[in-house]
Amino acid sequence: MNKQDVGATVERKVGWAVITPAAIIVLVFFITPVLYFLRIGFETPSQSQISVPGFTLNNFGEFFQSAFYVHTLIRTVLIALCSTALCLVLALPVANLITRSSRKVKSLLIIATVFPLLVGNVVRSIGWVALLGYDGAVNSILIALGVVEEPLELLHSPVTVGIAITSVVLPIMVLTLQASMEAVSPATEQAALSLGAPPMRVFRQITFPQMMPGVVAGTSLVFVLCMNSYATPLLIGGSQVPMLAPAIYSAITTTNNWPFGAAMATTLLVVCLTVIVLYGRLLSRIFETWRKEPR
Amino acid sequence: MAELLIEHVAKSYGEKLVLEDAYIKVPHGEFVSLLGPSGCGKTTTLNIVAGFVAPDSGSIRLGGDDITRRPPYGRDTAIVFQNYALFPHMRVTDNVAYGLRARRVAKDAIAKRVEETLRIMGIHDLADRFPSQLSGGQQQRVAVARAVAVRPSALLMDEPLSNLDAKLRAEIRIELRELQHRLDQTILFVTHDQEEALSMSDRIVLMNRGRIEQIGSPDELFQRPKTVFAAGFMGVENIVDGAFDGRTWASENGTQTMPGTAASAGAVGIRPSELELVERDPNFVSDEYASVQATVTGRTYLGDNVRYELAARGDSLVAVVPYSKADKDIGDEVDARVLAKCLIPLEPSVAQ
Amino acid sequence: MKLSGWMKALGLLVFVFMLGPVAIIVWISFFDQAYLSFPAEGYSLRWYAGLVDQTELFRGLLYSAEIAVITTIISLFLGVSAAIALSRSRLRGRTLFENVFLLPLVIPAIITGMALYIYLYQLSGIVQGGLVPSTWSLIAAHVIITLPWTFRLTYAGAVSIGTDVERASLDLGRGSLATLMRVTLPLLRPSLIGSGIFAFIFSFGDLEISLFLVSPGQTTLPVAMVQYAEFNVDPTLAAVATVQIVLIGLLLLIANKFIRFGEAFSGGLKQ
Asked: Environment class of residue C156 by beta-carbon count within 10 Å: exposed (0-12), middle (13-18) or buried (19+)?
């Protein structure tokens, strides 16, 4: 989006006036509450009120000294990383398929991609339960074929949770990749082909490097979404696969320990932010020197 | 010796016939242009030779091999695009080396060839730059270098000069021609610019709506266009319909002229620059000139020349006269004269 | 570039992976047996018929729809204002605004929900009123999470339309407001409809924010579904889920008439 291209048809004053309602709503109902909530993480828990005002790092200490919670954090990060990687690998052929399709087919495929996204995590997770549960479709088929005698415990494992999370965030990765693939000049691909490079090589050396901004954006967003998963680990992993977001919810609703929950939330946000920033910087350095060089 | 042969190639998209029976021979080392207006099928032909489009019928032979079914990366061709399509994430050296690496040439051979090609194109000092750091003309030279580096049997160029300004275009035309001679490179060049084709080609293939109107040397095409379309495209603005009986020319609305030199034809072409405007003389008789009574209806100043529009009993004619002789004005009644040997007999266009 | 056969097959396989769970749910909803098992013992529509008796789920459906409609209206108003303001006037801090409006996408909805709850709870103490849980706090939260969509989609549309037409209108003497009503908004109609549909859908399907902000006795459909599902997955649940799926599908098809999906998500990203 070339910012210089969009001229001003609305005066600055009017612009400010128009954007103020939205800005205020976001400030009052989002930014302030979130900051307030995170601040609580630095206060002491109390039985009678939400928290005792003050400043303490005890909640964080409690979190990192608990084997259960540290493992939960590590498990969440690992699952998020693996799901993101798997997601990238699976999304590439789909994005490729969509990009190279004719206009009508393309619209159809994009609707098919957006559709599960809009159906929602809850329904999709329930679908996975129906597929992989004790009485689910997969077990029924395996028993019917005589492969096993007793139904397999397919749910409640980190691998299953990871796969389900992947399927849930896949549409977002597909859309981001597709958008950046569309922006790659087809003439560069054709030039490479005509010079003697076969399609796989062209993809690896010509298409993918030009897609990098989209890949970085897509994987970052997907990683964050994986880290934030609630419904999927809850329904598919249950108590056997604790992940951060459900853990935060439990901590607050069962023990009413708001400061502790808030401290966990802050930890979640910090971990996400750190990974994203480091990852972004690393990839920029490797792949984008050619964009940054001045003329 | 690699000759490129486009043998009776045809292509349709559904109902639409885009290319009909194209037969073009490009001998080794020759510069052949596909010239024509947009939609004439020239780019489709190039894409078929490159391998991006599969023909419905016919074949492509390069150096005797039938490459019709081969994918683009299996042909010994290389293409240069109008918008250069340089790999933005690679430096100039890597861009130019790309094709050689893809063809698994040995490392030191690649380095040598790249160095050589960069020098030939005069861009050696740009070797470490990225495409975003180059001007249009420089990018174009890199695009050509990249294609030429693999020494393809056929170099394909799709309007590569269209994005450059006039001065650069003129410069690069000369460079390309020299390059081609130096490397003995076979080139198939697509353009819609008549001047470009005339200045660079050994032979021109003039196309219109999927069909080939005429093939010939630049000289032939310019001086002796064969069809109405060819004449029109080559700047023969006056095309007068009529019948020719060997001695006199009678146009359809009765404009009489003196005898011409050609055999039977359905139309006659007259270059605006060959039409003279003189004082009306009802008694003028000559074997060398064809003369028509006309009235001046328009006068446009062009700098060195003046362009006159004339009405001659139903026909409208255009004459371009040097400024020093442009003494006629709108409304004047004149005789429009042309040397009979400058009359160009024309057949109907191949494409209807 | 042509696609090889196995590339196409791989792509389609991944689609099956994405859509499989949804398809299974729809399939189960027509099973005759009362508990989940395969294969189907017969097919019937009785779970759909019985939905009205499933008060929790059914009321959740209605409540979710209500909330979604109100949310959409408010979210559209705010999102479109922001989009027009940012794309048509040279505000300083434009990038900041762009990022701020997209923030709710990356902050876990669970956290946003909890934060909003505790914040309003404390505020209730100050203003001596029950701010939470309440329908309006729920709506406020839904507006927050749908704002990124109404903003982003309209913004992309507004940028791609460009300002030339508006400048022409202003030149011809029409005032800003008239230009807005007669020129800009009509041109933005596809984006508006598309954004509206997306806002509705995301509000309808939200779980995490709603968890904290629903009042006892008045839950949204996703919350009701999760509570039900924690006990078992059966054809009744599948029936409700299918109703939601069909609703979403229809809305998508309608949106398709107005948004060119090929460009909806890549608008603004093209170089």
From this structure: buried
Look at B89 and A287 and tell me if their CB atoms are within 8 Å.
yes
Whether B92 and chain A come into contact, CB under 8 Å, resolves to: no
C167 CB-contact burial (10 Å; exposed 0-12 / middle 13-18 / buried 19+) = middle
**CA B312, B316, B321, B323 torsion-angle sign:** positive
- CB contacts of B98 in chain A (<8 Å) are 192, 195, 197
Task: From chain A, pick out residues whose CB is under 8 angstroms from the CB of B147.
Answer: 194-195
Q: Which residues does chain B have within 8 Å of residue A193's beta carbon, measured at their own beta carbons?
A: 51-52, 71-73
For residue range C54-113, what is the model confidence (pLDDT) as tens digits? 778 888 889 999 999 999 999 999 999 898 888 888 778 888 888 888 888 888 888 898
Q: Using CB atoms and an 8 Å cut-off, which of residues 52-81 of chain A contact chain B?
A: none
- The burial class, CB within 10 Å (0-12 / 13-18 / 19+), for A147 is exposed
One-letter amino acid for residue B143 of the chain: A
| CA quadruple C179, C181, C182, C184: dihedral sign | positive
The shortest CB-CB distance from B130 to any of A199, A287, A290 is to A290
> Does residue A290 register a pLDDT over 70?
no
Q: Indicate the pTM of the whole model.
A: 0.83
Cα(C53)–Cα(A133) distance, integer angstroms: 27
| C171 — pLDDT class (breaks 50, 70, 90) | confident
Choose the mutation target among C12, C13, C14 for the interface with A, i.e. most A CBs under 10 Å: C14
Rounded to whole angstroms, the Cα distance separating B101 from A197 reads: 9
Amino acid at B59: S
